[in-house]
Amino acid sequence: MSKQPRILLLYTGGTIGMVTNPKTGSLIPFNFEHMAGQVPELNKLGVDLQAITFDPIIDSSDMRPEYWIEMAQIIYDNYEDFDGFVVLQGTDTMAYTASALSFILQGLSKPIVLTGSQLPIGTIRTDGKENLISSIQIAADKKNGKSRVPEVSVYFENQLFRGNRTTKHNAEYFYAFRSDNYPALAEAGIDIHYNTNAILPVSNNTKPEFHKSFDQSLAMLRLFPGIQKKLVEQICRLEGMKGLILQSYGAGNVMTDQWFTDIMRETVDRGIYVLNVTQCRAGGVKMGKYESSKGLIDAGVWSGYDMSLEAAITKMMYVLGKNMKRQEAEVCFKKSLSGEINEDLIASD
Question: Which pTM does this prediction carry?
Answer without folding.
Answer: 0.93
